[in-house]
Amino acid sequence: MALSAPYTCATAGGLSVVYALLQTRVGLYRLDTGCLFGTKQTDGKADDEKLTALSRAGGNFQEYVPTALLLMLLMETATPVSSKTLAAYGGALAAARVALAVAHSNTYNRNLPNLLPLRIGGFLTTIGLIAGAGVYVGLKGFKALQ
C-alpha cells in the first residue's frame, strides 16, 4: 500500500526520534540527580540550570513541531505543492528544530561556544516555515471556498 503523505511521514518519523531522545535525556538526568519533579536542585534552594535547559529543549520542540507537521500534511495532501518543496520544508524544519534543541540543551554549559546563533537561526527558520505554510494553506483553502 502506498503512503498518501510520504514526506510528512518521513519528517514526522525523524522528528519523533529526536523528541524521544530529548525527553530521554531529561528522564535520565532526573533519575541521576534525584530531582523527580520540578527544576529545583535537591537542596531546594535554586533551579538546576542543566535540568531547566534539558526540559526547555523538549518543551520548545513539542510547542512548534506539531503545528509545522500539520501544515506539512495539509500541503502534501490538500494542495498541489511539489515534492521538492515538501522535501525542502521537511529538511529545513528538521535542521531548524535540531539546531534549536542543541542550543537549548546546552544553554547551561559554559564550556561551549556561543550557541545564540543556533537559537536565533532555528527559531526564525521555524517561525518562517510555519507562517509561510500557514499563509499558503490558508489561501488555498479560501480559494477553494469561492
TrEMBL record:
<feature type="transmembrane region" description="Helical">
    <location>
        <begin position="116"/>
        <end position="139"/>
    </location>
</feature>
<keyword id="KW-0472">Membrane</keyword>
<keyword id="KW-0812">Transmembrane</keyword>
<keyword id="KW-1133">Transmembrane helix</keyword>
<dbReference type="Pfam" id="PF01124">
    <property type="entry name" value="MAPEG"/>
</dbReference>
<dbReference type="GO" id="GO:0016020">
    <property type="term" value="C:membrane"/>
</dbReference>
<protein>
    <submittedName>
        <fullName>Uncharacterized protein</fullName>
    </submittedName>
</protein>
<dbReference type="InterPro" id="IPR001129">
    <property type="entry name" value="Membr-assoc_MAPEG"/>
</dbReference>
<dbReference type="InterPro" id="IPR023352">
    <property type="entry name" value="MAPEG-like_dom_sf"/>
</dbReference>
